[in-house]
Amino acid sequence: MRDAIGIFDSGIGGLTVLREILDELPDEHTIYLGDTARVPYGTRSPETVVRYSLQAARFLAEKQVKLLVVACHTSSAVGLTALRTAYPEDRLRVMGVIEPSVKEALRITRTRRVGIIGTDATIRSEAYTHALKQLDPGVQVFTKACPLLVPIAEEGWEDSDVAALVADRYLRGFRELGIDTLILGCTHYPMLRDTIARTLGQEIRLVDAGAATAREVRDLLKQEGRLRLAAAGGGARRDVEHLFYVTDAHERFVKVGSRFLGRDLAGVITVEL
Ligand code: DGL
After folding, report:
1. CA-only gyration radius of the chain, Å
2. Would you say the CB of residue 42 lies under 6 angstroms from ligand 1?
3. Torsion angles phi and psi, residue 154, rounded to 5
4. What DSSP character marks residue 97?
């Protein structure tokens, strides 16, 4: 299958990004790769995350995807430069989730006080902070690693008392900081959106990186005349294909992943990178 949008993540979480891409671009073929054998990336060193990310990208590049979306925030934070060096823009366009989220956060903030939550590796990298400050040097940024939210979402406990307790423990400090916008800087956090909103109060706007990235993907492909419909001269298309590859634990991916994707997953193939 040529001309698909390639999406990769450390595992299941990136399906929240794919879900938004499918909503925004229902006529596009997609190929998703979840590196389930080596998840989580969020606790690993930058060198390891870069190495894993390059291997994942190579797999999708060999499938001749037309655009590579790095759905994993940890890979986007730590590995995007290496990925863009390995794949120059004229060869393969590589899009991370950080730039679209940051633009969206700066568009909606009024107080210019923005919070970011993510994995340990993402927060340690300060990639979000740098990206925000590059676009608006006056913005005040507050960050917090929230690693426990990842297993809670995978366990299906996103609306439980456990989730509320953990979210409160991580996020209570943000209430006093006067932020009006919080970037959900990890693939799993959109699953906990309601719990996070209840913890912080409805007045704090939450930025869903998947949605922001999906809009950016649409705009980019449209601008470059590379939308599938445009290429085919318009008209509704039915023959859209969605392929799924994982590196391990295929059954768990199907079970948990269907919840993250919001639709049934089928035809998942296990591969080695
Ligand atoms: N996909 C990762 C991220 O968005 C979360 C899971 C992991 O640590 O690999 O940062």
Report:
1. 18
2. yes
3. -70, -30
4. S
Is there an atom of ligand 1 within 6 Å of 208 CB? no
pTM of the model: 0.96
Per-residue pLDDT tens digits for 230-253: 555 555 556 899 999 999 989 999
Encoded tokens for 255: 């079970």
CA of 41 to the centre of ligand 1 (A): 6
- DSSP character at residue 63: T
Q: Compute, in angstroms, the gap from residue 188 CA to the centroid of ligand 1.
A: 7
User: What are 130's two structure tokens?
Assistant: 């740098």
Residue 163 contacts residue 191 (beta carbons within 8 Å): no
Ligand 1 atom at shortest distance from the alpha carbon of 121: 10
CA 147 to CA 152: how far, in whole Å?
A: 10
Q: What are phi and psi of 149, to 5 degrees?
A: -70, -25
Closest to 123 measured CA to CA, from 74, 162, 166: 74
Catalytically active residues are 72, 186
